[in-house]
Structure formats: structure tokens, C-alpha cells
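Continuing the series of single-chain predictions for the mutant panel. This is the parent chain; the variants come on the following pages.
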Amino acid sequence: MSAQSPGRSRRRRGTGMALRILTAVALFIDAAVHIHLAPGYQAGNPAGIGQGNLFLLESAAAVLSGLYVLLRGSRTAYAVAFVVAFSAFVAVVACRYVDIPAFGPFPAMYEPIWFFEKSLSAVAEGAGAVLAAIGFARAGRRTPRAPSPQ
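Parent structure:
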């Protein structure tokens, strides 16, 4: 029966906590940028849902998933964080390179430029998605082992 050394176990917990914190920070940066930008984007479409309201909904999802990862660090928490971060990353890249027309209550969201806040949110979302995927994979390895029969 091989047991992990106490030092190795502490390092693994420390690395796990650092991963949780970094994932949450990436999501919080994403949320802060969207909260900051939301009022300017809502003015463009005061009727319907509006891009500013979509920004606020995305920021709420980012904050909640960041808190979930911080508090739990489970596979489910990392999966939620990945979905939020990756979907936001895909949205910002798509809105930059694809002319998405208005549909239903959603406004047209084509914006063919990069500026600091948009770039910052894209980097935070991409990093958050990668970190959440790593956390998801690591959390899956924490399954309790059955004692070996002797």
C-alpha cells in the first residue's frame, strides 16, 4: 500500500487552491469589464433585450461561477466556469469577426475592432476557459481509492 507523503498532499492542495483562485480571478475580470461596458452598449438598443443587458447577464454568470469555483472546486464548479468563460470567449471573437445580424429580441452585435477592454475580456475569458478545463481534469483525478485487498 503506497501512501502519499504529507508534503506532496499539501502541495497538491496548494496547487488546487491556486488554480481555483486564478480561474475565479479570470471570471471576475471578465465580469468587471462587462459591467463597465454595459451602459454604453445598452444605449444602442433601448428596446428588446439590448447588448448592455446581455453584458450584465454575462457578468452575473461570471461572478456566480467564479464564486462557485472558489467555494467548491468540484468538477461541476469547473464545468460551469468553463461553459461561462468559453461561451463568452466565443461570443467576443464571433462579434469581432462575424457580422451577426439582429434576430428576435437580440440586437446586431458586429463590432469589427479591438480596444483595450474588449481585448482584456477576451484574454480573461480564454484564460478562464483553459484554467477551468485544467481544473475539471484535475478534479476528476481526486476519486477516492478503494483499499487494496491483502
